[in-house]
Amino acid sequence: MASLKVSLYVDSNSWEPKKVNCTVKALNFTDSKCLVPSFLGGGAFVVSPFCNLKHVRVSRLETEELETSELSLNGFEGNLGNESCVSERPNLGREKGKFNVWKRFRRVKRVSNYRSNFREKDRKSMIVFDENVIDSQNGVDFHAENVGPLSSLEQCNEILKQLERGDNYGKALSFFRWMRKNGKLKRNVNAYNLILRVFGRRGDWDGAEAMIKEMSLESGCELTYQVFNTLIYACHKKGLVELGVKWFHMMLENGVQPNVATFGMLMALYQKGWNVEEAEFAFSKMRNLKIMCQSAYSSMLTIYTRMRLYDKAEKIIGFLREDEVILNLENWLVLLNAYCQQGKLLEAEQVLASMKQSVFSPNIVAYNTLITGYGKISDMRDAQRLFADLKRIGVEPDETTYRSMIEGWGHADNYEEARRYYVELKRLGHKPNLSNLYTMLNLQVKHGDEDDAVRTIEEMMHTSSEKSTILGILLQAYEKLEHIHKVPSILRSSLYDHVLRNQISCSSLVMAYVKNSMIDDALKVLREKMWKDGLFEDNLYHLLICSCRDFGHPENAVKVFTRMPKSNNPNLHIICSMIDVYSTNNDFVEAEKLYLMLKNSNVKLDMITFSITNRMYMKFGSLEEACSVLDAMDKQKNIVPDTYFLRDMLRTYQRCDKKDKLADLYYKLVKRGVVWDQEMYSCVINCCARTLPVDELSRLFDEMLKHGFLPNTVTFNVMLDVYGKSRLFKRAREVFSMAKKCGLADVISYNTLIAAYGRSKDFKNMSSTVKKMHFNGFSVSLEAYNCMLDAYGKEGQMEKFRNILERLKESGHSSDHYTYNIMINIYGELGWIEEIADVLAELKESGIGPDLCSYNTLIKAYGTAGMVESAVDLVKEMRKNGIEPDRITYANLINALRKNDMFLEAVKWSLWMKQIGL
Length: 918
Description:
Belongs to the PPR family. P subfamily. It holds the Pfam family PPR. InterPro entries: PPR_rpt (IPR002885), TPR-like_helical_dom_sf (IPR011990). PPR repeats lie at residues 188-223, 224-258, 328-362, 363-397, 398-432, 502-537, 677-711, 712-746, 781-815, 816-850, 851-885. Keywords: Repeat. The chain is mainly α. It contains 47 helices and 5 strands. The strands form 2 sheets. Strands 3-5-4 form a 3-stranded antiparallel β-sheet, with no helix packed on it. It has a two-stranded antiparallel sheet with strand order 1-2. Helix 7 (225-238) runs parallel beside helix 9 (260-273). The longest helix is centred in the middle third of the chain and has 17 residues, at 534-550. The protein is elongated, with a radius of gyration of 47 Å. The protein starts with 32 loop residues before the first strand and ends with a helix.
């Protein structure tokens, strides 16, 4: 036994990412210490042979050592299951299955019970420590009969190690607490490492953190990388990226320097979670510490390539050269993939050539990566060359090779070649992956091979692919070609059966049909569906109706609505959408019919219903009904209009001339604390201009400007009119100047300012504004001429009045009713009956004819001139021409009769007014 030796060495020439080659040479069990290779953490550990070794066990040492040393520092995916890589000491000389697991605790002082005729594997040892006795039946077989307060640290640690490897973590924790109570944890880093493994497996991270503080502050243990590697390993195994970050940063905060294994595990963990920021930090720290971890370079390069951060990936490639990293197979493959993903196939070919010059034999993965790269850029000539090279060098193409060739020919839109490789893949007994099936389906759809498309769909249905995904691919392929009308003939058997049974797939199909105006096909699917979900079905019909409307086909929405299943309880959302659809179709009768049906039902109307109905009535000019909708909404106290509906309400009350309603709504807006945006300010100012005091309007306008909102042209003109009528010309000029600077002053702006000056008899500014209007590129409008005529006429400046008339005729503008009415009114005030007759004759000859205002003005003029009979005749003429007299008409007539002492006739007309309700 003294001559038996075992040693370890690493063969750097055969370094591969998944395995470290180890050779068993010598191990002297007579020595108490054995050096551990540096890649396992370094340092020395103590072997305490407290049990007797038998000759029959020695032959197992070689196998055991190889198992514990198969650690991949350059590829942690498969071999991190061996936790010896993160502990301080690897476990040498232990046979699996030799020792039993502790089974129970007993409160006895000491038990030693051995059978006289026992076999090694059936032995039961009772190990006593303090007042707790652990029965190790089917567990660890120790040759020491007693473990107590005087037992050595090595013996206690060995017991803890065996308990940690068992399934019952509670026993390991109980024994650890016993060790703490008996002073076995002072400077005992090994014990803490073992118990941290337990916490890592259980996911007790708070307990692990507390244990680290305890070992540092209470037990006097020096924190080393092995402590944190144990926890980082547990996080790596479970994919807990954030916790891995936490332990790494805590490691650095405590001044502990990581080793190769630390960075290997961390970078592999960050690669799984695609955590770019932490990966960059760890990689930078590794390079600063001059630590060489090949897998870290691969992980960093893979992360950047996957995230399409190709510039950063190039920097990592530069670091590989700068740091003189001896590339292993994983490094070569990752480097090759990085160039292929970027489309740099020339550089990738150079990498492949370098691989061939190194110790690595031709690798099928490398060729597959290049073939995939060429396929992505549709360079199938070079892909075919590489495929041929495989057979030339004696490497058989594998499943991935054929799959990549199918994808490549698919990118190149070569259906025949893709089909050839697809058939060959299946002939060799391989199965196409989902990507291959999707590629073939797209090609078959594009090239009109409908029979093969059906077969491919059936093949996809038998894979693990989501059936809804298959349908989506099919619809996308046909929509791209604008051949969606062919889908009904393709959808057969199992896929169509899935559509009829699955709500999501059914809705996807009918939506595609509706989008392409295949309403009959969509309704057929809905009739044949086998799923039952009333709420989902209503929502689907609502979506179809809205989609038809949004796609610009309201007639299809009507078709869907009329054919959908009828219900005793109308769906509020569907009815609202249909009211909007009928309004779009200008079908007022059907829209109103649906609203009245809702109103008379037990359905509680919501804000959207009132909003849509209000817009419907406003569109068709039914102002009273629009106001009644708002009144009905006010009776439901729980409805809160949104911003859009509030603006509609303001416009409705304005058009209905409901000044009281406008004022109430405005002050409700102020009290409610509604968020005012540019549209709300403009709407309130425009609608409430004739309702609110000028001071309040002015405050709103200033507040709008203060918040940085730019008024539109209408708002500028409204404020011009408000200030002009209030004779606040200074403010009016400020608003006008602001509108000009913003390029928002239009003809109406000038007309409004001219009218304001005219009403105030400020002829100088009025004339000046007309000149500015002409100078700024605006022709003097008919409205401006009318304003000047009215102003000069009412002031009795008939010479200027006539000049304006001449200029109006020369401008080419045709006089309108307002022009003629102004002339009649001015001539009537002066008693110029002949001129009035001329104007009336001209008015009739122009084809315009008198309107209600014209007749009212004429009656007033005839009354002033004492021509009462002519005034009465005008009333009869009005009715003959289909113009119904209003209150002003009768008032002017009665005044004319009174002025001419015809009181009895005046009384008769007054009684007539009351009789007709005026």
